[in-house]
Amino acid sequence: MTPIKIAVASGKGGTGKTMVATSLASVLVSEHRVQLIDCDVEAPNAHLFLKPSINWSSPAVIMIPEINEERCTACGKCVEVCEFHALAQIGTRILVFPQLCHGCGTCSLYCPEDAISEIPHQIGEMSRGLTTNGVDFLMGELTISEPMATPIIRQLKGLVNEKGEIIIFDSPPGASCAVVATVHDADYVLLVTEPTPFGLHDLKQMIGVLKATGTPGGVIINRDGIGNQQLESFLEGTPYPILMKIPYDSEIALGLASGNVLTDFIPQYQSEFQSLHRRILEHYAKVSA
Amino acid sequence: MILMISSQGDTLQSEPSLRFGRAPYFIEFNLEDDSWKAHENPAVSEAGGAGVAASQFLIDKKASAALSGRFGPNAHYALTHANIRMVTFDGDYRSVQSVIDAYKDEKLQEAKH
Ligand code: SF4
Ligand code: SF4
User: Which residue in A25, A272, A287, B15 has its CB near the most CB atoms, within 10 A?
Assistant: First the structure.
């Protein structure tokens, strides 16, 4: 079986995205090789639930320019081509702003004097470990305040075990570039939302991302019962079926608040997540046929 | 000597802008002859690095001093290296003209970092 990469995404934080990702990983690991990658590098939290024992870590770096002042003729080309404004020219000097640099390499490509070399600049850290039940866990964390999530997500994805059977991406919230980077090479996206007008609004945005990337997906309604039917009637006319509903339940809220995986503290959910996985595979097979 | 004042609009009567990188306009004011010119801030709609882009604009215009509500760390770094004085004003000034008058009367403070 080819590995199926599932991204779990939501329009905003706190909708139960990590709850779904960690539960799915915990349930499927009894029968499959499972890798979970927390791509929410600005605020990773899946590790708080899965509690992996981290045994590997590595700095995430991007390559930023260093100007060789002997060669630089101060032509200003590099400043002009940098779309992130990470370079400025003052008289004959070129200033580099490492915090703004995205490491795209455009400046060195355009420098007519070959005066730009590239040096590593740390933007975050990646770590990896196993959970007690055997999930191969990976996460990245940005250590700078600039929104530079995409390069770390790309590097994390370089660590995907292509021989693994199931790879779960816990996506960052929202519809930013970081989300697009996460969803981009997923085979399937689980959209977690709440049945409220806000939930519907966010869901529509997320569906926009799926349409743009052409990725199939299905919807999980969390805290079912708190809102109205609007969301369900909206989904009826779309290719994104409702795959699961998790009711609003104070026991769930309590268990999550103390850092537990849903399927551990309410074992009835194990079979629910198994059937969720079946439904994903069925829907995936149908749309990719 | 050229001042650049961050502004919401394109006249001396416009409200000054407390933001530097994302100010809609810069008013260029020449202290030698009191002449002035309004420039749209080329950095206003940049996704990132607006402070650096606005600083580059002031550097290219050979400004001697930048007047704004506050300067972000990147703008501060760029303007410092370019020897451009950073001067701040607060929200009490209702027009660019009143900021210029206060500057001439030495009532404004250097930006501190
Ligand atoms: S690598 Fe890209 S972002 Fe960084 S300074 Fe060069 S052009 Fe700008
Ligand atoms: S493009 Fe090269 S030569 Fe021109 S200013 Fe930049 S570093 Fe110097």
Answer: A25
